[in-house]
Write a structure and sequence with these properties.
Blueprint (H helix, E strand, L loop, with lengths): L13 H10 L5 E6 L2 E7 L2 E5 L10 H6 L4 E15 L4 E4 L10 H4 L11 E16 L10 E17 L2 H8 L6 E2 L1 H8 L3 H13 L3 E7 L2 E6 L5
Parallel strand pairs: 3-4, 4-6
Antiparallel strand pairs: 1-2, 2-3, 4-5, 6-7, 8-10, 9-10
Length: about 230
Amino acid sequence: MAQPSGIGELNERSLHRALKALYAVPGSLTEQSIDGYVADIVIGERIIEIHTGIFWPLKKKLPRLLASHPVTLVHPIAKDRYIVKPAAGTRRKSPKHGSVFSVFAAIASIPMLLGHPNLTLEVVITVEEEVRVPNERRNRRRGGWTAVDRRLVEVVEIHRIRSMGDLFAMLDPRLSDEFTTRDLAAAMGSSRRLGQQAAFCFREAGVCRICGKVGNALVYERAKPRA
């Protein structure tokens, strides 16, 4: 049963609202109750779910929706981010830069769902502003500021991903026949932590498998296609 538009919108941040406006089309419905969950956008039978954080909260929701609907899961990653502090009147560029591979931090909680025939993941590479305000309770090590909003400045590109194999194909030419999480991190230009998350996702999806160890490091190889 459909519910009126507006449910949950009061708690949305600017980035979520901007992406919802980007994906909505004439005649689409927003904030609809489907199978006990609220869907961001419904276009015919298709559901568009916009999620700006890690995917752990979707572990129950997605399987329920995917059972009867095609779902496009939209996830933004900031290639460039500007830190805006209205109280200080400043706007500076963050030294941190994301890429399509940053999505592993999000999908590490649902690796087996990527590859479901009803699921399409769209990674939206963006330029964003992160708004921070003073917070007296914030640890001084963090500067005494807390993030309260994310704003979309620009959409740079969109990567459409249907399976973990699509992500591995982006890295495959940069990897040797056998590789470690350090090699994955180097291929992605990322932290070792993200390399570990990528290896976990690939292993869970059957894209690669453990073939040995070097010291304490696991060694992986490409999984052979199933007969």
